Every structure is written in C-alpha cells, then in structure tokens.
Amino acid sequence: xxxxxxxxxxxxxxxxVWELVGGFLSLPDWLPFIAESVSAEGGRVRHLTTKDxxxxxxxxxxxxxxxxxxxxxxxxxxFPATGYLAKLxxxxxxxxxxxxxxxxxxxxxxxxxxxxxxxxxxxxDGGLEALKGNF
Length: 135
Hints:
By secondary structure, this protein is an alpha+beta fold. It has a domain at 2-23 and 64-132: Alpha-D-Glucose-1,6-Bisphosphate, Chain A, domain 4. Helix content is 24%, strand content 47%. A seven-stranded antiparallel beta sheet has the order 1-7-6-5-4-3-2. The longest helix is centred in the last third of the chain and has 20 residues, at 113-132. The termini are far apart. The model has no long low-confidence stretch (mean pLDDT 97).
C-alpha cells in the first residue's frame, strides 16, 4: 500500500476552518480544481466534477463533527490507484490556530508506488495551500 500525507497550519480557530472544510460537499468552496460537488445517497456520496471536466465519485466512510474529521473512499475516478481511503482532519493549535491534516492510503494501478504517492502528495499539498489562502 502506498501513502501520502500533508498538513498545514492556519492562523484561525479550528472551528472556523472546520466550518469551511467540514461539509462533505464543500470541496468547491476551497479546492480550486473542483468545480462542482453533487450529493447522492442522502449525502453519503459526492459526485465531483473537476475544472477540466473529469468526474470523480467519493463515498463518505466516517464523519465526526466533534473531532472535526471525516474519511472517504474514491469509488470512480481518473486516478491510477485502487483501494483509496483518505482522511481529512482539523486539529486545534491553541485558541487561534488550526492544523489541517489530509492523508491517504491506496494501491497503485499501472504506475509505480513512488509515482502514485507523488500524484496524491501534489493533490494534498496544493489543496491545503489553497485552503490556507481562504483565510
């Protein structure tokens, strides 16, 4: 299994950051390359459309509002990986800052482990930098 993870410190409260990222359908609000997120199955599935028209479907696996975390799997998408499971978490760093962690595990499909890890590392790093730019 391959892995990737990233984190960023944001100088606002964890509650404020969670307000933006905590909704499973909120990706278009903070992740620039996601143009649309459509709910299915009562909010347990999100059908995403990227800015360049790619389609991705993700299933919510766990959600804990109090702990400010959720996990999800990719059920369909253009990625060269299977068994993808990711976790997004917002952790308080004092009263006026938060650390956001985004990580995933997956099995490369048709590419090397290093290439798959680099692909998702780029998504996580770029996504968290974009998130930080919202504050």
